[in-house]
Amino acid sequence: MSVLVFAETSEGKFKKSAFEVTSYGKKVAEQLGTNVVVLAINSSDPTLLYTYGAEKVLNVLNDSLKTFNVKIFANIIKQAAEKENSQVVILDSASNSLYLGPNVAVNLNAGYVTNVVALPSSTSPLTVKRKTFSNKAFNNTILNTDIKVISLAKNSYGLIENEVSGSIEEFSPSLVESNLTSERIEQTTGKVTIADADIVVSGGRGLKGPENWGMIEELAEILGAASACSKPVSDLGWRPHSEHVGQTGKPVASNLYIAIGISGAIQHLAGVNSSKVKVVINTDPEAPFFKAADYGIVGDAFEVVPKLIEKLKEFKANNA
Amino acid sequence: MKILVCISHVPDTTSKINFTENDSKFDSNGVQFVINPYDEFALTRAMWFKEKQGATVTVVNVGNVSTEPTLRKALAIGADNAIRVNTEATDGLAVAKELAEVVKNGGYNLVLAGKESIDYNGGMVPGMLAALLDFSFVNACIGLEIDGDKATISREIDGGKEILTSNLPLIIAGQKGLVEEKDLRIPNMRGIMMARKKPLSIVEPVNNSPATSIASFEKQAAKSACKLVDNVDELISLLHNEAKVI
Ligand SMILES: Cc1cc2nc3c(=O)[nH]c(=O)nc-3n(C[C@H](O)[C@H](O)[C@H](O)COP(=O)(O)OP(=O)(O)OC[C@H]3O[C@@H](n4cnc5c(N)ncnc54)[C@H](O)[C@@H]3O)c2cc1C
Ligand SMILES: Nc1ncnc2c1ncn2[C@@H]1O[C@H](COP(=O)(O)O)[C@@H](O)[C@H]1O
Asked: What is the domain count for chain B?
C-alpha cells in the first residue's frame, strides 16, 4: 500500500506545484496510515523533495523522456502505481498533469477527481472537497473505486515543510508507443505565467486601448507578477488570448490579484475568486468587483497606477 | 471525415448557483441551459471542416430528455444529426464509457470536445474517452488542421504552446483559439427550421457503475466587506502588513 505523487519537472527542475503535491501526498499517506512515494521524471535533484516529506523517490532518468508525451508518461505513472501498490495517485494542476490525469485513471481503472482543494474529509469512503460550477461552489465527492486519482488545485494546500531522510530509487519503466509526435514548443520567454505566478496584475476595458498596457506591464514587473486581462480585452485583440482570465479563460489562484478597470462581471469573478487577496482599482464605486474584493481604490487608473508604481518602487528599495 | 462533437448541456454563465434537497442537488429552477462554451469552439471548428473539406458532423450528449433543446441548437448551427444517450450524466468515467460506445458504433475518426464543462469542471471526459479507445488525444487544443489522414494540432502549455502531429483517429479537447470568438456561430431562422427535421436518435446506455458520486454541495462562503482606501501608500501598507502578500 502507498500513496503515489507525481512531481512534475520542467527541464530537470521541479515546478513549485511539485512541492505542494508532495506536501499534500505526505499528509494523505498519514491519514491512510501508509507511506508516500514520489515519482519524478528526469529530475536533476530529487533530494529536494525530502523537505516536503518524500520518504521514497522514484527517479526515471531517460533522455527520450525530455519531450513530454501524454500516453508514455501516463503509462509510466501506471507502472509506478502498480509497482508500489498505490491506492491513491496524486497529481497537480499544471497543464501536463491535467493532460495526464484522465489517461492514468482509465488505465488504473480508477475514479478521478480534479480541482481538489482540501485533505480528504473521510478516508472510507475516500471523500474530497473540490471546486465546481467554475469556482462558484464546491462539492464533496466520494470515490468508489479501489484505486483513486486526485488532482490538487493550485495553491490550495500550500508548501508544508516536513523534512525526512528519504531515499532515491532509480526506476526504469518500459516505454509504450504513441502515434502523437511533438514537433516543437514555442515558449513565450522571460515572462511569468499566470499558472505559476504568486501575483497577477490584470487590466480590463477601462484601460481604453492596447497602447495603455505599458503601465500594467511595469506594475507587473515590479511585483514579479504575471499580466492578465478580461475577456473583451483579448477578444478586441488588445492582448493575447493566453492572458484572458475568467470562467471561460484561465483560472487564477494567486496570492494577490489586482484588477484595474475591470467591472467584475460574474464570469470574470468566477475565474479569479480562488485568489487569496483581491484588489480593485475602478472609477465607478458601484462596479460589482468591489463586492468581491478585499481592498479597493475608487479612482482613475491613469492617475492611481502611475502613483502605485512610483510608491512600490520606493517600497521595494526600502524592503530589499 | 466522420466527426463527432461532444456537447455538454450546462447552466448559462450568468446563472446564480443554488442547491436544493439539503444541498444534495443542483437547483435548476429558473436556470437557462446552453451549449458548454468550450464545446461551441469545437462545434464551430467542425462546421468549418464540413464546409471546407467535406465531413459529416454528429453531435452527442449523454443526458436525460431535458438536454434535447441544447442538441437542437447544435443542429440549428449546422450539425447533420444528433445522438442522445439516455442516462443521467453524473460521473466523468461513466460518461466517457457511454461516448466510447457511440464512437465505436458510428466509426468516427475525429472527435471534438471541450476542455472542460463549466458546471462539473472535470476536465476529464475527452481524455478518458481517448484512453478507452486508444485514440490519440490532445488537451487544451488551440489549433487543428487536417490534411487527409494527418492532423497538426497546437495545445496550450504553461507559458507557451506545443505543436503536435498525429494520424487520425484523433480526439481533441478544445478552447478559444481553435476558432476565434468572433467566428462562433449562432443559429439563424433557417437553421432553426431545418433543425426540426434533422434526426435526433436516442440510444440506451450500456450499464456501468459510476466511479464517483457527489455527497453534497456547498456554496462559496460570503465575503467580508471590501476595505476602501484613499491612497496608494495606505494600500501598500495594508498589502504588506495586513494581507502579507507583498
Ligand atoms: C459566455 C460568456 C463567457 C464569458 N467569460 C468571461 C471570462 O472568462 N472572463 C471575463 O473577463 N469575461 C467573460 N465574459 C464577459 C463578461 O460578461 C464581461 O463582459 C467582461 O468581463 C467585462 O470586461 P471588463 O470588465 O474589462 O469591461 P467593462 O465591463 O466594460 O468594464 C470596464 C470597467 O472599467 C472601469 N473604468 C473605466 N474607465 C476607467 C478608468 N479610467 N480607471 C479605472 N477604471 C475605469 C469602468 O467603471 C468599468 O467598471 C463572458 C461573457 C459571456 C457571455
Ligand atoms: N454528458 C456529456 N455528454 C456529452 N459530452 C460531454 C458530457 N460531459 C462532458 N462532455 C464533453 O467533455 C468535455 C469536458 O467535460 P468535463 O470532463 O465534464 O469537464 C465537455 O466540454 C464536452 O465536450
From this structure: 1
